């Protein structure tokens, strides 16, 4: 059972999402909150698999709530998906850097919402490569830290190849096919790269791949 927490200051949004999610046999909404502070407390209480959190809220915004969730080792199993009114919201990239697994536009169709929750619960990134490239092109301005740059040099050639394929939106099975290895080996390459680069999940790995120049956005 996938346990979901809803955090949004608009009651109609919460009730609409809850109505959709509660119809599914494999998804359960465990709680809901109207601001980031309450949402963070409920995350700590319920330890949901997926937290759907609005970016802009009173008291504590979604980015700060996500940052605190990502920084708490006890909440490592919580996958945060940000909710935004605009697909290219200027806050989206900041949310990904804070530790979000991805983002959804609030007018998403029901089928895509359900798919997104299941993808996030598996620990995969909710980042379409085309959207990621636009985000990186538009919002990445600061240089990599010295520590991150040094960590990149520690990746093996196969790990670098796996990271590049993750950034293209491929799953472990697809990476295995492309690299002619087993899915388990593909997963190992990805996990080792995440450990070396100190990324919390695949979403942050994707962002770092573009930031570092390991993958270059189309059009550059």
Automatic annotation (TrEMBL):
InterPro entries given in the database record: CheY-like_superfamily (IPR011006), NreC/VraR/RcsB-like_REC (IPR058245), Sig_transdc_resp-reg_C-effctor (IPR016032), Sig_transdc_resp-reg_receiver (IPR001789), Tscrpt_reg_LuxR_C (IPR000792), WalR-like (IPR039420)
Domain HTH luxR-type: 148-213
Domain Response regulatory: 3-121
4-aspartylphosphate modification, residue list: 54
Keyword Transcription (UniProt): yes
A Pfam cross-reference name: Response_reg
Domain of life according to the entry: Bacteria
Keyword DNA-binding: yes
GO biological process, one term: phosphorelay signal transduction system
Record GO terms (molecular function): DNA binding
Coiled coil: none
SMART domains tied to this protein: HTH_LUXR, REC
Entry keyword set: DNA-binding, Phosphoprotein, Transcription, Transcription regulation
The protein's name: Putative transcriptional regulatory protein YxjL
Lineage: Bacteria, Bacillati, Actinomycetota, Actinomycetes, Kitasatosporales
């Amino acid at each position: 059972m996938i346990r979901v927490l809803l955090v949004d200051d608009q009651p109609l949004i919460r009730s609409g999402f809850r109505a959709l999610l509660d119809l599914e046999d494999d998804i359960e909404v465990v709680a809901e909150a109207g601001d980031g502070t309450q949402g963070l407390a409920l995350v700590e209480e319920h330890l949901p698999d997926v937290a759907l959190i609005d970016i802009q809220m009173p008291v504590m915004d979604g980015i700060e709530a996500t940052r605190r969730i990502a920084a708490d080792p006890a909440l490592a199993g919580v996958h945060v998906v940000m909710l935004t009114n605009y697909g290219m919201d200027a806050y989206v990239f900041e949310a990904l850097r804070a530790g979000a697994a991805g983002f959804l536009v609030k007018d998403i169709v029901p089928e895509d919402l359900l798919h997104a929750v299941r993808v996030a619960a598996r620990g995969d990134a909710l980042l379409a490569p085309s959207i990621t490239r636009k985000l990186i092109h538009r919002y990445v301005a600061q240089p990599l830290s010295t520590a991150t740059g040094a960590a990149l040099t520690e990746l093996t050639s196969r790990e670098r190849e796996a990271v590049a394929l993750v950034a293209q939106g491929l799953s472990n099975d697809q990476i295995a096919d492309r690299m002619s290895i087993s899915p388990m080996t593909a997963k190992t390459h990805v996990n080792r790269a995440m450990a070396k680069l100190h990324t919390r999940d695949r979403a942050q790995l994707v962002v770092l791949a573009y930031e570092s120049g390991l993958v270059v956005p189309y059009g550059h």
